[in-house]
Amino acid sequence: MKKLSARRRHPLAALVVLLLALACTGGLYAVFAPADKAQADETAQSLAIEEGKKLYAVGCASCHGTGGQGTTDGPSLVGVGAAAVDFQVGTGRMPAQQPGAQVPRKKVIYSQAEIDQLAAYVASLGAGPAVPSEEKYGPEGADIAKGGELFRTNCAQCHNFTGKGGALTHGKYAPTLEDVDPKHIYQAMQTGPQNMPSFPDTTLSEQNKKDIIAYLNAVNGEETESPGGLSLGGLGPVTEGLFGWIFGLGACIAVAVWVAARTAKAKKS
């Protein structure tokens, strides 16, 4: 007992006890903390799905069915994924205002938190593309020249060379890509909304999508100026050639008429 008492009075005894306590605390945290975090994440996801289900019942079920199975007024949402919901609702296209050849972009009526909840519920109906992280559509590491080449090959036929948009058949159209959130451009390529084909990673890789978005930011940025002067809407050589023919040839005809009139007047005098 005397030896134990002497050890307790040793100057390093308190330090040893403190180190042991810290070691035990750290060990217990390492064992239990991951499980608690996973459980918390699972609980938060369940709550988001429940809230999303309520929002869906009010704003979406009348067209897409109570379980997302689809109706004559709206397609099935099973397997479309969270990215499709974030795009359609985040751009105001859904809920649709009225039926038509194409649903236009309009004012967003849901908050981002509500959109996330709707996306969580629809994603729970079936696996589909997830909402991309900012790293996937951000400008870091993007090749603008490659993006321009990919855009002209895959997108310019409908959206024109600089993403100004264009008309399609039967009242449909390719919308302008100016002032569109890069996340929504990425999601559109992922999911293929309305008349647009989808471009999964097997067709256009994540890097390809990043490059295309960087190209659109470059040609439609606020500080971007056309090196040739008037851009003519960026519609390409056909429109520019037509402009040249109409105004250039028209000017030549006007000059020719003026010269002929002057010549005739001079002969009479």
UniProtKB/TrEMBL annotation:
<dbReference type="InterPro" id="IPR009056">
    <property type="entry name" value="Cyt_c-like_dom"/>
</dbReference>
<dbReference type="InterPro" id="IPR036909">
    <property type="entry name" value="Cyt_c-like_dom_sf"/>
</dbReference>
<keyword id="KW-0472">Membrane</keyword>
<keyword id="KW-1278">Translocase</keyword>
<protein>
    <recommendedName>
        <fullName>Cytochrome bc1 complex cytochrome c subunit</fullName>
        <ecNumber>7.1.1.8</ecNumber>
    </recommendedName>
</protein>
<comment type="subunit">
    <text>The cytochrome bc1 complex is composed of a cytochrome b (QcrB), the Rieske iron-sulfur protein (QcrA) and a diheme cytochrome c (QcrC) subunit.</text>
</comment>
<keyword id="KW-0349">Heme</keyword>
<keyword id="KW-1003">Cell membrane</keyword>
<feature type="domain" description="Cytochrome c">
    <location>
        <begin position="47"/>
        <end position="126"/>
    </location>
</feature>
<feature type="signal peptide">
    <location>
        <begin position="1"/>
        <end position="30"/>
    </location>
</feature>
<keyword id="KW-0813">Transport</keyword>
<dbReference type="InterPro" id="IPR009152">
    <property type="entry name" value="bc1_cytC-su"/>
</dbReference>
<keyword id="KW-0679">Respiratory chain</keyword>
<keyword id="KW-0479">Metal-binding</keyword>
<keyword id="KW-0408">Iron</keyword>
<keyword id="KW-1133">Transmembrane helix</keyword>
<feature type="transmembrane region" description="Helical">
    <location>
        <begin position="242"/>
        <end position="261"/>
    </location>
</feature>
<keyword id="KW-0249">Electron transport</keyword>
<dbReference type="Pfam" id="PF13442">
    <property type="entry name" value="Cytochrome_CBB3"/>
</dbReference>
<dbReference type="InterPro" id="IPR050597">
    <property type="entry name" value="Cytochrome_c_Oxidase_Subunit"/>
</dbReference>
<keyword id="KW-0677">Repeat</keyword>
<feature type="domain" description="Cytochrome c">
    <location>
        <begin position="142"/>
        <end position="220"/>
    </location>
</feature>
<dbReference type="Pfam" id="PF00034">
    <property type="entry name" value="Cytochrom_C"/>
</dbReference>
<keyword id="KW-0732">Signal</keyword>
<keyword id="KW-0812">Transmembrane</keyword>
